[in-house]
TrEMBL record:
The keyword Membrane applies. GO terms for molecular function: lyase activity. This is PLD phosphodiesterase domain-containing protein. It comes from Aspergillus udagawae. GO terms for cellular component: mitochondrion. Belongs to the PrpD family. Residues 369-378 have a biased composition (Basic and acidic residues). It comes from the Eukaryota. Pfam families: MmgE_PrpD_C, MmgE_PrpD_N, PLDc_2.
Length: 1192
């Protein structure tokens, strides 16, 4: 921004009006507090949940008229009166018709909710329908409580853009949408204060007027805001004249008519004294686009959120806008007869990917400011322009660029202290979503009223909030400025006690003074303290994760009183599938008094992207965790609470601070500045808190959050990925199923064919049986999860036949299945038997595949550019790392405990590659992966038992992993964690070390050419092999080969074997007793095979866009002729080879036939497609009562 607008001290209206407004506001707050005290705040238990949507509500939703449709018929009506006329109970009774008999069958309940919405071709999830059902039920008491015509409450649409950014970025999108308007604009906001933010908007009105003039048209604009006035005691909707709203010295300063001659502007000031605030913030443009945001129109230091929606759902917002406006329109809205549902959904530009992909190559677009506006033609170019501002300028670090962008208007001098490493992934204010089909949405609003008898708490918003918490099965994520509404707190505690993981991002000190008013229920710190004290066990407390907001350029929270880094986002995401976003905070004002507009939506895609964007654009998850001992954030070094913090004891006369703070808040000034507080240490004396929650807490409880410093960023990044990344790509799920079956087939092959491996299996003490233990496939063994992880991990890997992935490091991602399957099956059996209470994710096929995909990704991304082999470390270090991460999640450990588990991985002494090298090559290379799986499980179980982690095992000096082993530069991560690895592995359709497969295929092609000439391998003088540097490093071996482990990692051996045998190698061909192991002919030919590193093949091997694994063979014959070179870049098993899918299927079937019938194999293939299949039922499909080895 190029300038800052100072708030004028001129009163809005007369001095008497200002005094009345201030005193009225204080009276309103105090009276509301008194009423709450008299009636007593309800809890979540006081909310009644209907078993079935009543006939009345069903008919409301199927009413043939809406406020919008009736205004289109007769625009002269008052929308507010029309709303009452259409849906008031007395008017509705005569319209009721008989409907099917209500039952309480769950499917009937959901079906009835389904029939009360317009979902298009989309199918709502059960979770969405449950929440929607409960929101609808509130209409039985008050059909007007949702501030929308009931037939429009449930709908569908798309979300092409989400903004998580400082407030000016949201106003930039508002400005662009206004400038692109054709017919009409409706803008509703709580605060409108002259500022840089408002200037961005008013500039856009001027631009819209200019464009309308060029078109020869006029655009209708309606602005609705809430600025309390004594006149609203008898007229809630005050018309605001131009003299007031365009006063050049006033606090609004909308453009006068002469500056916008082609706009028809009408302004209304809406407030319902004493208990009703218009707290909504939304906009509708041309009845085709709706914007729903957390922000007002005023300058502040907040991080805010805006959602851009299109499709039929826009009609719902439009209806809410009409009802909120209330008054008869001076000028009719042109789009009253043109609903969004009858028009196409504006499509995302076809240039979307191009704009995004060329980001690093193009020059930055100039910033859109109040002094230098730049209006874009579409969302994609808007996003490009705003996201460009985060790119560092000359001389700027990445963190300094973020600080510059966050320092918007009132906090220009704030400095950041976050390291540049915190800027990966980078802040991305505008997130354009990939094209997607319309999905179910519903508006869940709240009317602006708080009746003394509290009947108004039964609103769609409140019921949706509580229902979402009540129906959550796995996870709840919440970000809100304040959280102190009593029913909300009770519902969250209930969820935690059910085993749900609850994560809350709260703003430190947001409106602390106002929250100290009597019976407003306290500050965020007081709330966090209450919640933790109400949980009785460490296990319960571990599932409640409360954080104070930390800016993207900061390493600690800053109290809201300083107006430097605050957060005003209002969002909840349930089970990573359903979200509620909008205006409503989780505090007493939003829950009991204010009009709020919120959007309930049903999309795993959007939820995943929102979680990513939320965490990408702040450092809250990294630095913001509060102590579970007192609910306060403490400096990791000093233990002090932040400067300005009230803590959990506001002291005497806290109500007086609240009154002063409320007055100053109404006057638009900064909140009351509490007295300086003495520095407080971690152990704080308990305070007297007004609450009806029980206070029980063991004195021995200790939080991991009291660590002296934050964990190393690579550890945090893995944890964030495991807990917060949502997988929604069907290709990834399909690839994971293939990988799972391939690995299981490899395990069965090893079990049946390798006596050497069989000797490693089973309990350490023969005959030991573990009740409800892991059932080792192909056997009747029941093992503990540690030994089980070793056994199944070893079976998968031993014959070197499982999948592989290359890079600077080479590895086998399916090795991780050893840890995943053993733990998941054991947990499933133990919890089903009642021997343990599982607190992690559901133990189903979908969870198994999720863990597998994420383990592949962690190992795969580390392998790309980090050569552990260069330091003599074996690649199974990455198996231990990835397995530990997902096993911790499977066990139900907290994020903090997962961080601790991963820290132990890096503290371990790591395995040496010596057992894969030269004369030291021994069978250990076959059980090294099993060993890594076993260690990963053991470490996670130790942490579950209470062992803490060490926060800096990588960066610590002088003994950290970087300093002693890997080098100060640390790890290089060329791509963020996602779903890449599972879709790019090499399936080994022959038991050959992966770098040698292409060479074997090329050898077989050359053998065919030899035979075509009537020649054989005996005619070969020498073979020249061009291959990758990785192949040369790993499998180029000359001299004596000592055992099977040595032979299967020798490229010359497998090439010679292919020439002499005439087919691909098999596992038995490597054994000591094999004919080929003793063949002098093979040994002779092996000595005549020469390996050459080819830089071009090496580059293609490392290129993530190609990932070839090529080798080329030229055969020189004894008669001095030669066979032209044969190059194989993508051998069978590579994702780019079209023969891969069939080859992998045939490999699985061939391996399974060693121990299973065709019918059993067919059943496995059918069952693996079922997402809800229990893991123990899947494993049971591989069980055998007898084993190849009698010992087993």
């Amino acid at each position: 921004m190029s300038q800052t607008h100072q708030l004028s001290d001129q009163p809005y209206g007369s001095t008497l009006a200002a005094v009345l407004r201030l005193s009225g506001a204080v009276f309103s707050i105090c009276l509301s507090s008194l009423v709450i005290w008299i009636v007593r705040q309800p809890t979540s238990d006081n909310h009644t949940y209907c078993d079935m949507i009543s006939d009345k509500v069903y008919q409301l939703c199927h009413h043939d008229k809406t406020v919008s449709s009736e205004l289109a018929r007769d625009p002269s009506q008052s929308p507010e009166k029309l709303f009452h006329k259409l849906y008031h109970e007395n008017k509705l009774k005569e319209k009721l018709v008989e409907t099917k008999q209500s039952t309480t069958d769950s499917q009937d309940v959901l079906q009835r909710a389904y029939e009360c919405g317009n979902w298009g071709t989309a199918k709502p999830s059960n979770l969405f329908l449950k929440i929607y059902h409960d929101a609808l039920c509130t209409l039985d008491k008050n059909p007007l409580g949702g501030v929308v015509s009931p037939p429009l409450m449930g709908s569908h649409g798309v979300v092409p853009l989400t903004i998580v950014a400082p407030l000016p970025d949201l106003c930039r999108h508002v400005a662009n949408c206004i400038a692109r308007a054709e017919k009409e604009v409706f803008l509703g906001t709580n605060y409108w204060i002259y500022s840089d933010a408002s200037t961005l908007v008013t500039n856009a009105f001027r631009e819209l007027s200019r464009r309308a003039g060029e078109r020869g048209s006029k655009v209708v604009v309606k602005v609705l805001y809430d600025r309390g006035s004594p006149q609203q005691l008898w007229d809630n909707h005050l018309s605001v004249g131009e003299k007031q709203y365009a006063d050049p010295n006033g606090k609004v300063r909308l453009p006068p008519a002469r500056e916008i001659p082609n706009l028809d502007l009408q302004v209304v000031n809406y407030h319902r004294p004493i208990f009703g605030t218009f707290h909504a913030k939304f906009m509708v443009i041309d009845r085709r686009v709706a914007l729903l945001q957390s922000s007002n129109v005023q300058d502040n230091d907040n991080l805010e959120m805006m959602v851009h929606v299109e499709g039929p759902i826009v009609d719902s917002f439009y209806d809410t806008a009409l009802i909120s406006w209330g008054k008869v329109f001076q000028t009719t809205l042109p789009m009253l007869s043109s609903p969004a549902a009858s028009a196409g959904i504006p499509s995302i530009s076809a240039q979307h990917s191009q704009v995004e992909s060329n980001e690093d190559l193009r020059s930055s677009l100039p910033e859109h400011t109040t002094q230098d506006p730049h209006y874009d033609s579409d969302i994609q170019h808007e996003a490009q322009r705003v996201n460009d501002t985060i790119r560092p300028r000359a001389g700027e670090s990445k963190s300094q660029a973020v600080t510059r962008h966050l320092n918007t208007t009132i906090q220009r001098d704030t400095t950041g202290d976050a390291p540049d490493s915190d800027q990966e992934p980078p802040m991305r204010p505008y997130m354009t979503l990939p094209p997607h089909k319309p999905f179910p949405m519903a508006v869940v609003n709240r009317e602006p009223w708080g009746a003394p008898n509290h009947t108004s708490i039964y609103t769609p918003q409140n019921s949706a909030f509580l229902s979402a918490f009540r129906h959550a099965k796995h996870s709840i994520f919440v970000q809100t400025p304040n959280m102190n509404a009593e029913p909300i707190l009770q519902a969250l505690l209930d969820a935690v006690r059910r085993g749900v993981t609850v994560t809350c991002y709260l703003c430190l000190g947001y409106n602390d003074a106002g929250q100290l008013l009597p019976f407003q229920n306290g500050t965020n710190e007081m709330t966090a303290n209450r919640l933790y004290r109400s949980l009785h066990t460490d296990e319960e407390r571990s599932r409640l994760r409360i954080y104070n907001y930390v800016g993207k350029d900061q390493t600690k929270p800053i109290h809201n009183k300083y107006k430097k880094r605050s957060c005003h986002i209002k969002l909840m995401i349930i089970d990573e599938r359903v979200a509620i976003q909008g205006n409503g905070n989780l505090d007493t004002q939003s829950f009991y008094h204010s009009q709020e507009v919120n959007l309930l939506l049903d999309s795993p895609l959007v939820c995943r992207i929102w979680l990513e964007q939320i965490n990408q654009n702040q450092n809250t998850a990294i630095y913001g965790a509060v102590s579970t001992e007192d609910g306060c954030w403490h400096d990791p070094v000093s233990g002090e609470i932040p400067k300005g913090s009230i803590g959990i004891d506001p002291g005497r006369f806290s109500w007086a601070k609240g009154v002063v703070g409320a007055v100053q808040r109404v006057r638009g000034r900064l909140a009351y500045k509490p007295r300086s507080l003495l520095k407080r240490r971690l152990h704080i004396k308990s305070s007297i808190i007004i609450t009806n929650l029980p206070f029980h807490r063991p004195e021995s409880t200790r939080s991991f959050n009291s660590m002296s410093c934050p964990y190393d960023k690579p550890i945090i990044d893995i944890t964030q990925y495991v807990f917060h990344y949502n997988i929604d790509d069907e290709k990834a799920w399909s690839a994971a199923r293939v990988a799972l079956l391939d690995a299981m087939g490899c395990a069965i092959e090893t079990l049946f064919t390798s006596e050497e491996c069989q000797k490693l299996l089973g309990p350490a003490v023969p005959g030991t049986e573990v009740p409800n233990g892991f059932r080792l496939p192909g056997t009747n063994l029941s093992l503990d999860p540690v030994k089980g992880a070793f056994d199944i991990g070893t079976l998968i890997r031993y014959l070197d036949h499982n999948d592989a992935l290359g890079g600077a490091e080479w590895g086998h991602p399916s090795d991780n299945l050893g840890a995943i399957l053993a733990v998941a099956d054991w947990l499933c059996r133990a919890s089903a038997s009642g021997r343990c209470k599982h607190t992690g994710p559901p133990l189903t096929m979908r969870t198994l595949l999720t863990a597998l995909i994420k383990a592949y990704e962690i190992q795969g991304c580390y392998q790309i550019s980090n050569a552990f082999n260069a330091f003599g470390i074996d690649h199974v270090i990455l198996v231990k790392l990835a397995s530990a991460a997902v096993v911790a999640w499977l066990l139900g450990l907290t994020e903090e405990q997962t961080l601790a588990t991963l820290s132990h991985v890096w503290m371990d002494g790591q395995p040496s590659r010596v057992y894969r090298t030269g004369a030291n090559t021994i069978p250990r290379k076959g059980w090294a992966a099993g060993d890594a799986c076993m260690r990963a499980v053991h470490l996670a179980l130790l942490v579950r038992a209470g062992q803490p982690g060490a926060p800096t095992p990588l960066s610590s000096l002088p003994f950290g992993f970087y300093a002693r082993t890997f080098g100060a530069n640390g790890f290089e991560m060329p791509r963020p964690f996602g779903m890449w690895a599972i879709q790019n592995v090499l399936f080994k359709v022959m038991p050959v070390e992966g770098h040698g497969i292409a060479a074997v295929e090329a050898a077989l092609v050359q053998l065919g050419k030899l035979r075509a000439r009537g020649l054989g391998p005996e005619c070969i003088a020498r073979v020249e092999v061009r291959t990758t540097r990785a192949a040369d490093s790993i499998i180029n071996k000359r001299g004596q080969l000592h055992n099977a482990a040595d032979r299967d990692h020798c490229i010359q051996y497998v090439i010679a074997l292919a020439f002499l045998k005439g087919s691909a190698p098999e596992a038995r061909d490597y054994r000591d007793e094999s004919y080929w192991a003793r063949s002098e002919e093979l040994a002779s030919l092996r000595e005549r095979i020469f390996i050459h590193v080819d830089e071009h093949l090496t580059r293609d091997y490392l290129d993530l866009s190609k990932k070839s694994i090529g080798s080329a063979l030229t055969v020189h014959l004894l008669d001095s002729s030669e066979l032209p070179e044969v190059l194989v870049e993508y051998p069978a098993g590579h994702v780019r080879n079209p023969a891969t899918a069939r080859a992998v299927q045939e490999k699985f079937a061939k391996n399974m036939r060693l121990m299973f019938t065709e019918k059993e194999i067919s059943e496995i293939l059918q069952e693996v497609e079922k997402d809800d299949l229990l893991i123990m039922d899947f494993v049971e499909l591989f069980a055998r009562q007898s084993s190849p080895d009698p010992r087993l």
